[in-house]
Recover the amino acids of this structure.
């Protein structure tokens, strides 16, 4: 087998992206538009750098996320580095659910990384918290890596699960 790159799911909620664009525009507008007394130059440049940082978050972070099926295991690329999980350490969990509130980490459109509460489908038992390495808040796959739940969002979750199962990953239930 060779390395197979897995396409990521797209974020369906444009509202958060629009809010971040508005924040960047407000920072730039507040610094450079001639409204009232002008801001001192250091503050203008600070606001400009902050606006640039917001734009960088929206562009660079989602591009750093990726999943690759390799001979050694599942490789997950993220902003802070790369993880490789041997297939023997993985378990595909059911049920599928969605990310809840962010407990710690990053949450920008197209890049969700860190600890999140987990919302299982009604009537199903699932973990309380998951580690997200995802491009969307819903429509993904829940994996257990050494008993710790991780949420990933490939573009085709069924094909991703099938590929993992073909590589020897076991299927399990949340809470096992």
């Amino acid at each position: 087998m060779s390395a197979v790159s897995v396409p990521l799911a797209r974020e369906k909620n444009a509202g958060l992206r629009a809010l971040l664009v508005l924040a960047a525009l407000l920072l730039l507008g507040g610094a450079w538009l001639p409204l009232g007394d002008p801001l001192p130059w250091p503050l203008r440049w600070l606001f400009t750098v902050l606006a640039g940082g917001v734009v960088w978050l929206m562009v660079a972070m989602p591009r750093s996320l990726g999943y690759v099926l390799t001979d050694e295991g599942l490789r997950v690329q993220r902003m802070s580095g790369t993880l490789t999980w041997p297939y023997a350490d993985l378990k595909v969990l059911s049920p599928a659910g969605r990310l809840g509130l962010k407990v710690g980490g990053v949450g920008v459109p197209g890049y969700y990384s860190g600890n999140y509460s987990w919302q299982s489908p009604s009537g199903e038992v699932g973990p309380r918290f998951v580690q997200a390495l995802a491009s969307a808040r819903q429509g993904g796959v829940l994996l257990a890596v050494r008993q710790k739940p991780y949420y990933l969002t490939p573009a085709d979750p069924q094909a991703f699960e099938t590929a993992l199962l073909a590589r020897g990953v076991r299927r399990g239930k949340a809470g096992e």
